[in-house]
């Protein structure tokens, strides 16, 4: 993947979270909170 393609891809992902990140994943957790939890579990 070229640097430009990667940057475009990441910009698209960022755009999705900016638009939908505050929506609820479930009753207590937002989409962005869920993504952070997943990242923390993957790191651990």
Number of separate strands: 0
Approximately what portion of the residues adopt beta-strand conformation? Answer: under 5%
Uncertain residue ranges: none
Q: What is the count of helical runs?
A: 2
Classification by helices and strands: mainly alpha
Cα end-to-end separation:
27 Å
Shape: flat
Question: What proportion of the residues is helical, as a percent range?
Answer: over 70%
* SSE sequence, one letter per element: HH
Major sheet size, sense and barrel closure: none
Structure overview:
By secondary structure, this protein is mostly helical. The chain has one domain. Helices cover 70% and strands 0% of the residues. It contains two helices and no strands. It is flat. The protein starts with a helix and ends with a helix. The mean pLDDT is 93.
Ordered list of secondary-structure elements with their pairings:
Elements lengths: L2 H18 L10 H13 L1
Short description:
By secondary structure, this protein is an all-alpha fold. It has helices at 3-20, 31-43.
Which terms summarize this structure?
44 residues; mainly alpha
